[in-house]
Design brief:
Radius of gyration: 26 Å
Structural class: alpha/beta
Number of strands: 8
Amino acid sequence: MAALGWLTPRRRSATARSVLAGEASAEAARKSSQEAPQSAEEPQFPVIGDEKAAAFFDLDNTVMQGAALFHFGRGLYKRKFFETRDLARFAWQQAWFRLAGVEDPEHMQDARDSALSIVKGHRVAELETIGEEIYDEYMADRIWPGTRALAQAHLDAGQKVWLVTAAPVEIAQVIARRLGLTGALGTVAESVDGVYTGKLVGEPLHGPAKAEAVRALAAAEGLDLSRCAAYSDSHNDIPMLSLVGHPYAINPDAKLRRHAREKDWRLRDYRTGRKAAKVGIPAAAGVGAVAGGTAAAIALSRRRR
């Protein structure tokens, strides 16, 4: 009993000291949190009024859920631009990119040729008008609110914001205009006298081509790329992301997530649950890249004329 009586007070005393230590630590943490922001918080970004800065956003699965070209294809099918067997083939190509997670050259070529054949002989103005309708039908409800807010932050800071996508330039421009963005860089298909020929002008705006487009636009606009930001979901856009001083991985695929962590890039994921792990990010990049030439035509032709 004597031993027990000796231990009890000590246990109580230790508890009292623990409480005191905890309260002191909490008070120190509270004071630190009140004093730290001025010296520890990150500099404001985007920087308001920085005319040398701009933001570049990938489209598929970065700004919008899914591939813009796939939604565009749905709209064209609804308007009887092609038959059921073409839709089935188009859907299979979309599924391939989604499941395989890679961009097989043969599948890319097949998808691109299919898309170009669909619009061959149609007028550019017709596709531009239809693009507006398809945006309302299939795309408007698929814009990621989180990414939209990021773009708006740049706009509010007085900076220009561009979409950079392998999707047809006409579709990209519709989406950019509807979101209040500055403009869009997209794949350009050839047209003569306002009619699609079924050929591309160059290659799809994909991978390294996006980086070159951003570099060229930055030079033309007098931008400092080290002060610019870029946003994408796909490892295929690492060349574009590496160009700027503020790269962001948005809803990243596995390869981009690893790369972003290695490089200490910022990540944002607006998906939820298993969908975040399995959503077809490569599908969007793949279909957009492959079939980017589908309706993407007149912009470059206009500039060259």
